[in-house]
Design goal:
By secondary structure, the protein is of the alpha+beta class. Helix content is 42%, strand content 17%.
């Protein structure tokens, strides 16, 4: 039998009774959990021991997005070695601390050594580290133009546009709807700056996820029968200083930080 690398391959081998004895609602959900590594075949009471023993070695578990990003870190750290930190200070809007480069991420110091190791007093997650290293390696160093554009105008790749909307804009809107004080926290904790814009909103806030990658959040509060509205804009130069996939990943990393902050108050 060939390798089992997707839920449907696992599902075909199950009794399809949806008995829930494994702890999930359906056999298909159980199959998906097995591929993710959240469940083991032996948790299905209807599979014979010999069958489980034979099949376990054929399962190829899907990596989580975080695990995939950790693999991306390996070649990035190899590229960091080639970067001349002292010559990159102006290009990145960074500071040189001995033989280490210090870059502001949301107003907090993130220090990177020549091997790509990152140190910060702020919470570090892989969604932020990968864009940070990419920024150090590939940023063109173009100063912001102060012209704001939506994410979709940074790239013609509609796949990233969909990811950005579903995995950053919508969850952020829901988060602020549930925790209105989050905006004030972003101003206080991450050096956010309230600004006046031509966009229709009750609150407009500029954050600096990276020195030359400003981000504008515009939020309109719900009114009577009208739901709230949130839009995120970037400086038109963002695509020159960071590749589109890293901009998306950086935003997901910020969302993780924001969710941790809001969870302390709920």
């Amino acid at each position: 039998m060939s390798k089992l690398d997707n839920p449907l391959n696992i599902y075909k081998l199950l009794p399809k009774l949806n008995c829930k004895l494994c702890g999930v609602a359906t056999c298909l959900a159980f199959a998906a959990a097995v591929i993710k590594g959240d469940k083991r075949l032996k948790e299905c009471p209807h599979l014979e021991h010999n069958a489980i023993k034979e099949l376990d070695g054929k399962i190829i578990r899907q990596m989580t997005p975080e695990e995939q990003l950790k693999q991306v870190l390996v070649p990035l750290k190899e590229e960091i070695i080639k970067v001349d930190f002292s010559a990159s200070v102006k290009r990145l809007g960074a500071k040189l601390s001995g033989d280490k480069l210090t870059v502001k991420c949301l107003g907090k110091d993130f220090t990177v050594d020549s091997k790509g190791n990152v140190i910060s007093d702020c919470h570090i997650n892989v969604w932020v580290i990968v864009p940070l290293l990419n920024y150090i390696i590939r940023s063109a160093g173009i100063d912001p133009s102060e012209k704001w554009v939506p994410f979709r105008e940074l790239s013609s790749d509609t796949v990233w546009n969909s990811f950005f909307e579903q995995r950053f804009e919508k969850p952020l809107k829901q988060l602020i709807d549930s925790y209105p004080d989050l905006i004030e926290d972003l101003i206080y904790i991450f050096n956010g700056k309230p600004v006046e814009t031509s966009f229709t909103s009750d609150i407009s806030l500029v954050l600096y996820p990276l020195p030359k990658i400003p981000l504008l959040i515009c939020y309109k509060k719900p009114e009577e029968d009208l739901e709230s509205k949130l839009n995120v804009f970037f400086d038109s130069t963002a695509g020159d200083n960071l590749h589109i996939d890293s901009i998306y990943r950086l935003c997901v990393g910020l969302l993780v930080m924001f969710q941790k902050i809001s969870s302390r108050h709920i």
